[in-house]
Design brief:
alpha/beta, 5-stranded mixed sheet, 11 helices, globular
Length: about 300
C-alpha cells in the first residue's frame, strides 16, 4: 500500500559512536524522503564525529563498532556534522519524520547534533524538530506484533530477510517497507495518515526528547525526575529559580537544556509584562475614573 501523504515524509536512521546522547555523536545519517505520490529520494551522509569542547574527533565506542562495523579510521576525511548541517536542514524542511525506534534514540540524537551546532558554532538554523510529526514504526509494530526490525521485515514483507542490517541505509529502506506492510495488514485499524500514525501507540507527550519534561492536562510543563518530580516548571521558577541554572550546567542533553531555557524565557517575559503593567501610568480615562471613585468615598471636608 502506498502512503497517503499531504507533505513529504522522511524515514531516517542513525549510526553513532555510542548510545549516550549527551556524549556521543552521529557517524552515519540516512534519509529516505517519500514525496506525495510516493516518489522516493535517498541521501546518506558519512560523518566525522566531533567533540566540540576538545576540538578533536570523538572516538567510536568499541561496542558500537561491533554493531555497525564502523571504525575511527573509516571516517577520516568525512565532513563534520556542522559542515553538512545546512544540507540536512534543507532535506528536513517542510517534512514529517518516520523511523524504527527513532522517537527514543535517533530523533533525540539528531536534535542534539543540531543544538551543538547552534551552541558551539553560533549558527542560526531555521529548523525545529519539535514542530514535525514523528511516526515511529516500532511503536506500531510492538503494539501489533512485538519483535525487532529484522523480524518485522520478515513478518510484513513476505517472509524474506534483508541484507546489510545495521547499515543506516538498509535499515531505513527496510523501515519504509515495513510501514507499508503494516498498512496493508492492519488496514482496518491503521489509518493511512501521518497525523494518525504519529500518535498511534506513542509514548507520553514529552516536552523534550529525553523525557525530563512532560505536559499535564492543563498544558503546563511538568518535571519528571529528581526531587521536583511532579512539580510544574512554573512552580520551580517561582520558588527555586536557581534550578534552571543547575539544569544548564548539568549533564543533560542540549535539547533538554534548550526546552528549559525556552520555559525560563517565557516565565521571565511574563514577569516583565506584569511588572510593566503595574508601573504603567494611568490613562486620562483611568485618571477620571479614579477621581470619581475617590470623590464617591470622600464625604467630609479638609478643614
Amino acid at each position: 500500500m502506498d502512503l497517503n501523504l499531504k507533505k513529504p515524509l522522511i524515514f531516517f536512521d542513525i549510526e553513532s559512536t555510542g548510545l549516550l546522547i549527551p556524549t556521543d555523536s552521529i557517524i552515519e545519517l540516512s534519509f529516505v524522503k517519500i514525496l506525495p505520490g510516493n516518489e522516493e529520494r535517498i541521501k546518506t551522509w558519512k560523518i566525522l564525529p566531533w567533540d566540540y569542547e576538545r576540538n578533536c574527533q570523538r572516538p567510536i565506542n568499541p561496542s558500537a563498532s561491533a554493531v555497525n562495523g564502523v571504525k575511527d579510521e573509516d571516517l577520516v576525511g568525512c565532513p563534520k556534522f556542522y559542515e553538512v548541517v545546512d544540507e540536512i536542514v534543507e532535506w528536513l524542511k517542510g517534512c514529517d519524520l518516520a523511523g524504527f525506534n527513532s522517537a527514543k534514540f535517533d530523533l533525540p540524537m539528531l536534535a542534539e547534533e543540531i543544538e551543538r551546532v547552534r551552541h558551539y558554532m553560533h549558527k542560526d538554523l531555521d529548523i525545529n524538530l519539535h514542530d514535525m510529526k514523528m511516526v515511529d514504526v516500532q511503536n506500531i509494530y510492538h503494539a501489533m506484533e512485538p519483535r525487532n526490525l529484522k523480524a518485522a521485515y520478515r513478518f510484513y514483507c513476505g517472509g524474506k530477510d534483508f541484507e546489510d542490517a545495521h547499515t543506516a541505509e538498509a535499515d531505513t529502506v527496510a523501515t519504509y517497507e515495513v510501514l507499508k506492510g503494516q498498512l496493508d495488514m492492519y488496514g482496518e485499524t491503521l489509518k493511512n495518515d501521518v497525523d494518525f500514525l504519529a500518535s498511534f501507540a506513542t509514548r507520553n507527550h514529552f516536552v523534550d526528547y529525553a523525557g525530563r519534561l512532560s505536559r499535564n492536562e492543563q498544558g503546563e510543563a511538568v518535571i519528571t525526575f529528581g526531587k521536583h518530580k511532579g512539580k510544574t516548571a512554573r512552580e520551580i521558577y517561582n520558588t527555586e529559580p536557581s534550578y534552571f541554572a543547575w539544569i544548564m550546567n548539568g549533564e543533560f542533553t542540549m535539547d533538554t537544556k534548550q526546552q528549559f531555557a525556552l520555559l525560563k524565557k517565557q516565565f521571565d517575559d511574563e514577569r516583565k509584562a506584569q511588572k510593566m503593567q503595574k508601573e504603567k501610568p494611568l490613562s486620562e480615562e483611568e485618571t477620571v475614573d479614579a477621581a470619581k471613585m475617590l470623590k464617591g468615598h470622600f464625604t467630609g471636608s479638609l478643614f
